[in-house]
Amino acid sequence: MVLFTRYVNAQFEPNGSVYFSESPMSSTASTVAEVRPFPNAKAPAVEAPVEPQGPAEAIPPPAKRKRSARTFLLPVIGAALLAGAGWYGYDYWTDGRFLVSTDDAYVQADMAFVSPKISGYVSAVKVTENQHDKAGDPLAVVDDGDDRIAVDQTEAQIATQGKTLERIDAQVEAAQASLQQAEAQKTAAKAAADNAARVVNRTGQLLKTHVATQAQLDDAQTAVEQADAALAGADAQIAAATANIGVLKAQRAEAASTLATLRLTKQKAERDLSFTVLKAPYDGVIGNLSVEQGDLVNPGQKLAVVVPMNKLYIVANFKETQLARLVPGEKVKISVDAMNGQDFEGTVSSLAPASGAVFSLLPPENATGNFTKVVQRVPVRIDVPADALKSGRLRAGPPRT
Questions:
Q1: Which end of the chain is more exposed for a tag (fewer CB within 10 A), N or C?
Q2: Which three-class secondary structure state does DSSP give residue 347?
Q3: How far, in Å, CA of 317 to CA of 340, rounded?
Q4: DSSP state, 66?
Q5: Is 297 part of any domain?
Q6: DSSP character for 39?
Q7: pLDDT tens for residues 376-385?
Q8: Pairing outcome for strands 120-125 and 296-297
């Protein structure tokens, strides 16, 4: 007998079994009822009947949809963009195409490097880093003991040489008196020689008349010779006195020259003494201070830098293709980051005589090897207006536009 089992009319029992009633597959076949448990079956939860809550509430009609803000903003933004594009195009056509600009620009200053001229130990430092100073203000002091000794020594030598000049002047006066005395003696000797000559003549005449003797004539001739010798001696004394005066005058000139040399030596010593105090050459700000009290400094050693904040200028490196209309006197619009983007107007002062490559350590030599054209840049100096300098916000070094 063939059995066909068909599960219909399923019923769940509390113990988890399921009972089905079978339905016959055929009218001729006999059927046998068989009850089997459904695997892993669980009794369904019995839900409580839902009681009616009353009449259903009326559903409100849908609210009318508001118009989006985007509908208003998009046309406004489009119109603003169109107006901006038109304004930019007009500005470019009227001004922009005639302008040149560069970001390769820097603020520079003709700074002074403070260096000693003499060697010595630093006895005091009068300034601090970033301090504002005036022209002539002391920055540092070097020990001046040796230089003061040199000045005192030179003054003593000058005093001694002055006494030497006084002595020589006195000797010259004495020599001139000796010369006058020699001249007077010459006059007396000449008078005696003339008298002796006249006595010889008279004695000769008297000897002819036998009034005088030969001995008297000989005595008269001897007197003449003595007078001539005295006259020659007077001439020699005059020459000696004159020569002595010349020697004394030469000695005085030598002493005067020595005195002038000593005075120059004193001036040098005083200059060296003044160099012991390092002073600011002009108004500015102290930077890169690298000296302390007690340091041993040498000539030429860099101790500090003085930056003149009222003499800053800008060097802009324009391309050679931008120099057609750049001439001294042209106005320049400058934008500075340090001034919160504030613009100010500068003036072109001058153009460099050559590009930066020419002044480099190794300038290019295009006559050798392959050639590749590179646009060169030429430095252009731009003066900064006084009001921008007075703001105190410009510093040497940072780039400008």
A1: N
A2: strand
A3: 23
A4: P
A5: no
A6: T
A7: 888 999 998 8
A8: antiparallel
